[in-house]
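dumping this here before i forget
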Amino acid sequence: MATIWPFRHFGLKVLSVVLALFLWMIVSGEETVERGLRVPLELQQVPAGLELTGEVPTTVDVRVRGASGTLSRVSTGDVVAVLDLRNARSGRRLFPLTPKDVRVPFGVEIVQVQPSALAMAFEPSASRRVPVMPAVDGRPAPGYVVGSLEADPKTVEVIGPESAVRRATEALTEPVSVSGARERVQQSVTLGLIDPSLRLKNAGTATVTVQIVPAPLERSLHNRPVHLRNVAANLEAQAIPSAVELTLRGSREALARVEADDIVAYIDLAGLGPGQYSLTVHADSSPEAGVTRIEPSSVQVRIISGK
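structure:
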């Protein structure tokens, strides 16, 4: 039988007692205070096949008590309310929330929790496939319109509460910009759902292809004068022929709104000196109807010194 020596390591034992006494004196000398905190609510053990519906609280208010020094060191995340939902069933349920459901650091006591109970509604989980509806933003170049839109994938599977899944009709895409486009636009975009209670089963991206096609109708403007712009000082210029024919393309409504004077045919003579030139004719387009043809497309321009 081993012999017990009560005075073995006597110095260490005395030091431990002194330190413990010192710590006790420090703690006992601190003032006990209470403080109100808003802490995160953590939901655990949600049964498989059930979905939470409606507004789900993310925080609760608690009142804590402890030494002033201890509470001063409590930071965000040190105190967390945990609600166990393993016994949840379909329908509206009431779950008590007590101080024992709140995790706190050593030396901190929970005095009160508000609210003392939480009402939550549950529904069976459901899923189904809905079509992907591409969205576009902006206008194509004048004389062009948006044609067919395609999304890949064409459908996606949505998951959520049974009633919300029944109401779901489509998944939306982030808008694809077609501003100024004259040809097909293809872009990978994010998918989304209007109802926040729903979610996508798989990755939320799709490739959207937007066909840009010429507008369906044409309109001709005859004998439109060719304006000579930026003629240098002390020079004179003349275009032969001095008028051209313009062809516009757009929707019926857009073409009906265009006045002849809205479309200006011109040649830019900036930097040109005296001489004979064959120059391309340009035209200012309407925002809604584009110039698709200028006849003739180029004219002879004679520049001479002014008198």
